[in-house]
Specification:
The complex is a heterodimer of chains A (441) and B (149). By secondary structure, chain A is α/β, with parallel strands linked by helices. Chain A folds into 2 domains: 145 residues, Alpha-Beta Complex (Aspartate Aminotransferase, domain 1), CATH 3.90.1150; 270 residues, Type I PLP-dependent aspartate aminotransferase-like (Major domain) (Aspartate Aminotransferase, domain 2, 3-Layer(aba) Sandwich), CATH 3.40.640. In chain A, the strands form 5 sheets. Chain A has a 7-stranded mixed β-sheet, sandwiched between helices. In chain A, helix 3 crosses helix 11. Chain A is globular and about 70 Å long. Chain A starts with 18 loop residues before the first helix and ends with a helix. Chain B is of the alpha+beta class and 149 residues long. Chain B contains 6 helices and 3 strands, in the order H-H-E-E-E-H-H-H-H. Chain B has a 3-stranded antiparallel β-sheet, with helices on one face. In chain B, a hairpin with a 2-residue loop joins strand 2 and strand 3. In chain B, helix 2 packs across helix 3, helix 3 packs parallel to helix 6 and helix 4 packs antiparallel against helix 6. Classes of the chains: A alpha/beta (441), B alpha+beta (149). At the A-B interface, helix 13 of A face helix 2 of B.
């Protein structure tokens, strides 16, 4: 087995997880206990969406059975209880990522969070132009001549909202390219992030390459340029101990369904002083102080960005998911998944005709690996693996520009989570080893 | 259903030896009326550009370029072999029949009299995620045929 390379801070995290513990964890996930095409399910698609433990499913059910009511309105018993668990959930999730309570804004998912933010920026421009709102909005507004910087490895969710913001404001979109191995060209980043840069948006961990980006270095470049930093934490928040304040980013997003929670809930984090002055995106009920027939005044964050009745049961379930991960230990999960990721890459590299994207075996990566099989389309690879009960993702993984840069249109991706064993990885590797022969490649 | 019923020999054969593949190398015959269609499946990136030449109410030539999975490439290959020599009316019937079978979720069997080797794609109908792979070149052919005829 490959030697696992993990950050030094993780070496203290003992006792390490092992297959025996994972098998116990699996008992908490009913969906994993089934046959697919006559074979025990091997679920290696958690990078797309993760499965729910019983405690999460029960938290949502309990809410509906005992506390369901609209929050922040009504003085009746259920409304008070619902509001309490909803706001407790916010505190739990804030603690989970090292944020303050009122810096956590509920969204449907990370995509909505990034769109919310990009529209808040363009609204800042409109407000500033008309002298509305806080003075500091002028600095947040984007104008022609300003630049937004992203990277070539972004998920479409952290690319297109910025393309559209550039279109609306006249700002230019620039990107930090990746090299042939998929690493960010940090040698170029210092020139790309410059005095014109207003926003730098990048992913913490790539959903295709598995690489963890140098957040501190990028934040440093952004600070030097006076730019704000937006972090896509979709593939990091579920898998490693995240402390947003320590990372010192201005905004961050992640999705609940990738971290053991249901779909329909996610988080936008923002520094309080920024959230309180940014104009809202969605307007309506729950987010106002005074409304006249002519205009409205808005509450500070988080309510400022939570118009309308919220995703209450999903927020409660996300808090249950955060608790499940905390109790297992994020450092232990990170270490275990790193081991699984290394096992995947080392095994894949040993199979003729397989090209793994991103860091080679022995280099840091999260517990996922995307790869190309010479002569076999990813859809066929996925179908072949499915016939053996193995669930993986195929396609461009919402990262077309990255695939184009690497000379590919589609790849196959296996992504692990805390409920995957080394046996899961070995079964996957054995199956991949048979793909090219089956398709006569 | 087993994988082998999806990936029948005919499909695996055609995915390797692609009949009609190579647009640039095959000019449409003189005097024919042509139509060309490009189809893309954004989910997986499968792509087909297909040109169809019609002369005296018959399909004289089918030529295409494509990139995609074995199902989509084999389907384009089988289609181009099948279509050549058909009347415009016969090809329309074949396309309608193929679509009906593929969208039936496996409930309607393929008629080899109408579909020839394309009947091998019957099994794809049980895999909802792959129906578009099999259909992409047929959608392109229908579009091209409407332009040419």
């Amino acid at each position: 087995m490959a030697v696992v390379s993990t950050p030094a801070t993780l070496e203290r995290a003992l006792p390490a997880m092992d297959d025996a513990e994972v098998l116990r964890i699996r008992n908490d996930f009913p969906v994993l206990n089934q046959l697919v095409n006559g074979q025990p399910l091997v679920y290696l698609d958690s990078g797309a969406t993760s499965q729910n433990p019983l405690s999460v499913i029960e938290a949502e059910q309990e809410f509906y059975e005992q506390r369901n009511a609209a929050v922040h309105r009504g003085a009746h018993h259920l409304a008070v209880e619902a509001t309490e668990v909803f706001e407790d959930a916010r505190q739990t999730v804030a603690d989970f990522v090292g944020a303050d309570y009122s810096e956590v804004i509920w969204t449907s998912n990370a995509t909505e969070g990034l769109n919310l933010l990009s529209y808040a920026f363009s609204n800042a421009g409109m407000w500033a132009a008309q002298g509305r709102g806080d003075e500091r909005l002028r600095e947040l507004a984007l104008n022609p001549g300003d630049e937004i910087v992203v990277t070539e490895m972004e998920h479409h969710a952290n690319l297109i909202p910025w393309q559209e913001l550039a279109f609306r404001t006249g700002a230019a979109l620039r990107y930090i390219p990746v090299d042939d191995a998929g690493a960010l060209r940090m040698d170029l980043a210092g020139d790309i992030i410059g005095p014109r840069t207003k926003v730098v948006a990048f992913t913490h961990a790539s959903n295709v390459l598995g690489v963890i980006n140098p957040v501190a270095e990028l934040v440093g470049l952004a600070r030097r340029a006076g730019a704000l930093v937006v972090l896509d934490a979709c593939q990091s928040a579920p898998h490693l101990a995240l402390n947003i304040k320590e990372l010192d980013v201005d905004f961050a997003v992640f999705s609940g369904h990738k971290m053991l929670a249901p779909t329909g809930i996610g988080v936008l984090y923002g520094k309080q002083e920024l959230l309180d002055i940014l104009p809202p995106f969605l307007t309506g009920g729950s987010m106002i102080t005074t409304v006249t027939m002519e205009r409205a005044e808005y509450l500070p964050a988080p309510q400022r960005f939570e118009a309308g009745t919220q995703r209450i049961s999903q927020a409660v379930a996300l808090a249950a998911a955060a608790n499940y991960l905390t109790e297992t230990g994020l450092d232990r999960i990170h270490y275990w998944e790193s081991e699984l990721g290394q096992r995947m890459v080392a095994g894949l590299e040993a199979i003729p005709g397989i090209r793994v994207l991103g860091p080679a075996a022995g280099q840091d990566r999260i517990g996922l690996a995307a790869f190309d099989v010479e002569g076999v389309h990813a859809h066929d690879v996925g179908q072949f693996l499915d016939s053996k009960g193995i669930a993986v993702r195929v396609g461009h993984h919402c990262a077309q520009p990255l695939h184009r840069r690497l000379g590919l249109t589609a790849t196959t991706r296996a992504s692990a989570y805390l409920y995957n064993t080394t046996d899961d990885v070995d079964q996957f590797l054995n199956a991949v080893a048979g793909v090219r022969a089956y398709f006569r490649a | 259903m087993s994988l082998d019923q999806l990936y029948q020999q005919i499909i695996l054969d055609h995915s390797k030896a692609r009949h009609g593949s190579g647009l640039a190398g095959t000019a449409a015959p003189d005097g024919t009326s042509t139509g060309q269609s490009h189809q893309l499946n954004p989910v997986c990136g499968d792509e087909v550009t297909l040109r169809l030449a019609v002369e005296n109410g018959k399909v004289a030539q089918v030529s295409w370029d494509g990139a995609g999975c074995s199902i989509s490439m084999a389907s384009a290959s089988v289609l181009s072999e099948l279509a050549e020599g058909m009347t415009v009316e016969e090809l329309h019937q074949a396309i309608d029949s193929f679509r009906e079978v593929l969208r039936s979720r496996g409930k309607i069997p393929a008629d080899p009299e109408v579909l020839g080797d394309a009947a091998a794609f019957e099994g794809v109908a049980r895999y909802a995620a792959r129906v578009k792979c099999a259909m992409i070149s047929w959608v392109a052919a229908e579009d091209a045929l409407n332009q040419a005829a």
